[in-house]
């Protein structure tokens, strides 16, 4: 306000900040209605297993089709949903929708949902997930959950016990975007994690930058030594794919294999998948 009175340079930015805040409030309001209005959908991106050359599972990714804005990316609306607490309802919808979809896929295809740190801190989270599975009549070993390092950072009791009870029930736990959070590696031995997903930012430059190569190689090695499998995220070209395979990565995900697809499209994609495509 002082800047305004004095006619200082902040004046120039103030209308901009206000516009951003207004924009956020509008999205927040639209977001809350979007669930009733059926504007959300899941798409599924396959994961390639290097050992078998087959599609081993997929990741469910949330899409919001806004009536006037079109597709709003999750990087915009997830943080708003987290800040407002709406993520609890939205996240439950994601889990229920994934459980409804799983029976359409072959039995060996596991579907992983992304779960935010805010959801994990709710004491009844694990029970809700298990209830969704049993309501849909889906076995818990067909579901996976992707969490980020930041979710584990605070060493929260409710979070840790949710992870433990879900893992015990057979839900596969993946550590997402590995290397971008605050890597306190102690949780790797404290918690039952099954998979590490190496963030796209490392995979992207694995052939161009020696630091990315060193980090990726190190993560693959560490995962192997811990008996955890490891996924390269965001694989966009064949050279990245063969680098990951050569260097002992277990799985790959990215536009090279497939973009995220609707459930029927993923079903067809799996049916027509030829392991020879990626052999070499
Ligand atoms: P994520 O979990 O790391 O998901 C991978 C993101 O990378 C997806 O973006 C996917 O479309 C994109 N991607 C996959 N392969 C490639 C590639 O080869 N190149 C490039 N450039 N990108 C690739 P998307 O769908 O926009 O999701 C962004 C993030 O939003 C996700 O990152 C996840 O953190 C979050 N998110 C998505 N769905 C949900 C959800 O249902 N719940 C929560 N809590 N978060 C979600
Ligand atoms: Mg993910
Ligand atoms: Mg990821
Ligand atoms: Mg990522």
What would you note in describing this structure?
The chain is an alpha/beta fold and 280 residues long. It is built from 13 helices and 9 strands. It has helices spanning 2-6, 10-34, 74-84, 87-101, 117-120, 125-136, 149-153, 157-169, 187-190, 200-204, 210-226, 238-246, 263-271; strands spanning 40-49, 55-66, 70-72, 110-114, 143-148, 172-178, 195-198, 229-232, 251-252. An 8-stranded mixed beta barrel has the order 1-2-4-5-6-7-8-9, surrounded by 5 helices. Strand 6 (172-178), helix 9 and strand 7 (195-198) form a beta-alpha-beta unit. Helix 2 (10-34) crosses helix 3 and helix 6 runs parallel beside helix 8. The protein is globular and about 50 Å long. The relative contact order is 0.12. The structure holds ligand C2E and magnesium ion (MG) (3 copies). One magnesium ion binds next to strand 6.
């Amino acid at each position: 306000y002082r800047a305004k009175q004095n006619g200082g340079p902040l004046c120039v930015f103030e209308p901009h900040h206000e516009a951003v805040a207004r924009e956020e409030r509008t999205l927040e309001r639209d977001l809350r209605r979007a669930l009733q209005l059926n504007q959300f959908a899941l798409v599924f991106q396959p994961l390639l297993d290097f050992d078998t050359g087959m599609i081993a599972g997929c990741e469910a990714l949330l899409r919001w089709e806004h009536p006037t804005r079109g597709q709003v990316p999750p990087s915009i609306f997830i943080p708003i949903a987290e800040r407002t607490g709406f993520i609890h309802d939205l996240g439950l919808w994601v889990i229920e929708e994934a459980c409804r979809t799983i029976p359409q896929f072959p039995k060996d295809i596991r579907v992983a949902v992304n779960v935010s740190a805010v959801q994990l801190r709710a004491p009844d989270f694990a029970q809700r997930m298990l209830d969704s599975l049993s309501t849909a009549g889906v076995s818990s070993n067909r579901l996976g959950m992707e969490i980020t390092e930041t979710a584990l950072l605070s060493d929260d009791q409710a979070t840790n016990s949710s992870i433990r009870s879900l893992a015990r029930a057979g839900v596969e736990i993946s550590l997402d975007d590995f290397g971008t959070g605050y890597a306190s590696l102690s949780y790797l031995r404290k918690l039952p994690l099954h998979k590490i997903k190496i963030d796209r930012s490392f995979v992207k430059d694995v052939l161009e930058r020696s630091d990315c190569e060193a980090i990726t190689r190190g993560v693959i090695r560490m995962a192997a030594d811990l008996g955890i499998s490891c996924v390269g995220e965001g694989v966009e070209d064949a050279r990245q794919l063969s680098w990951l395979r050569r260097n002992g990565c277990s799985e790959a995900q990215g536009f090279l294999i497939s973009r995220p697809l609707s459930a029927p499209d993923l079903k067809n994609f799996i049916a027509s998948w030829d392991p020879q495509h990626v052999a070499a």
